[in-house]
Amino acid sequence: MNGQGTISFDEIRVDTNYVLKEGDKKADDVLKNLEFDREQKQTIVPTDDTEVRESLIYLGQAEVLENESNRDRRDRLADLLYQNPGLRAQFHQRQLNSPTLETGLGDASESEDEDFYTPASELLVDCRQFLIRDSLRRAQERLRDERCRADSQDVHAIIVQRRNLNAKLSKYELWGSQVVSSRPVSGVALSPDQKFVACGSWHGDAKIIDSESLEILTSFDAIHDDKIGGLDWSSDSTLLATGGADKLVKVWKPFSPKDSAVELKGHEGRVVKVKFHPSDRYVASASFDMTWRLWDVEKQIELQLQEGHAKEVYCLDFQCDGSLLCSAGLDSIGRIWDMRSGQSLMVLEGHAKPIYGVSWSPNGHHVATGSADGTVKVWDIRKIGAPFSILAHNNIVSDVKFDKDSGKTLVTSSYDKTISVFASDSWLKLASLKGHTDKVMSVDISRDFSHLYSSGWDRSVKVWKLGVCNS
Asked: Rounded to whole angstroms, how far apart are CA atoms 69 and 323?
């Protein structure tokens, strides 16, 4: 007892020298056996059933007992080693003589070491050094422009401008439609110079159409041998990248593809989406082989093969500075990758179903993902927390796009046959556009918000204009 008339824990006597009612074993022996199970099983008892069987045979025991499971067999070996110090010493000597023998400890250490790295090639190192310089310059320019706007902004004027813009964006009307293929049109992309629209279909064909009239300017029947999944323009509108179910990524000049096509081979599954890096030197591709890859356009080689998703990678997009890439897919998660180091910086978890679309805002810190759960989630990479969730559609969200200049508008397409327009200052839905007769698969928006382009299962490309009736 202490001075206060109470008993401390250190003074309590622990008696384990008694026989348990459930048998003839003493409590002390049972506790020691439990301690052995906890420690020794992790260090010397194999986890692989083949090794357990070989160990039992080595110790002169029956390999298999009637109705014995793998776990029961391992427990039998553990009991045998605990009760017979001589056999345990013999077994330990066998392990020393067979360094390849699997043990519980080795298995545990391997499972804990989940991350692994492979040496970067000299070309990839050169690429990353370039990306450091290039992305730093772009980030400096973007931040300088943002500071200038912040120094000169008039809050009242900005509010009035946004209200006027939001009112305007609610007045999109269907202006024209053009059937461009015999199969669903899976992708539509407006050129950066706003003059042309590229579209690709599940037939494997691609077409270049006029952005105003939707007149077909050029048509190519066999760009890919199977479904075209994604298209993307270079920043100067001179090159087009496409990916197809033939496992190829192709980069070609839109008006002379046969003379200029570059084939990038390496994927082992369907290529679903492709994206030019802001520098135009590189192209990234997402594939059903559960990887995304980075390609050098000029050297026509694969620079990086990136794993990290548990299922097929369906979409990706570069941040405007070119330093980050977001990939997402059928495992319902997105990942933010640092292109300068190859590291995964963030995991975007929250969607209940596969992600089919991803888009970075020009502000550099918002990224939107569209999912089969009907929602669009907007993630702010500056902070860790729950994303803003938009109940966007009643069916699969097939594509998401921020406008490319200001990021004030987000547009989405869906298998519910509609296109939705959202304001990025409140994420309120401004318009729901109906005109497709079947699932909408892709959408894009012009820099000045005046035009929307969409494509889908009805084999058409449609253009929507602000407040213009097609008479």
From this structure: 52
